[in-house]
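Appendix B. One record, verbatim.
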Amino acid sequence: MRIKIILSAIAVVFALVLSFFYFSSGIISNSAGEIMVEIIDDDGHIVTEKTVDFKAGDTLYDVLDRHFNLKVSGSEHDTFGRILLGIDVIDTDFQTRFIYIEIDGEEARKGIDYLPLQDGSTYRFSVRQPH
């Protein structure tokens, strides 16, 4: 009986550790592909429009970091992942301005560590002000 309790406790701890690492790492791609990245300046003009490739195992952060100059706060292990503060020519402070992300015209509801890479999709980064 005592061995069953000990084994059950070990199994629970092991499951918790595995789930922590699974949920604390970013969303990785299962396959290779390409995405279009659009960067919009404060005036609403497209300043960068670039097709970039990704490979299996990449996160959106990996792809952006490989192809653009990024300014981020935090780490992938923070609760909400990294906060994108700047990408190429746009720069924000997250207090008075932030980077708004859209995928194929739809609002992204997660950060750059937790957005899936979708082959053929357009990722748009623009500056917004909080309401």
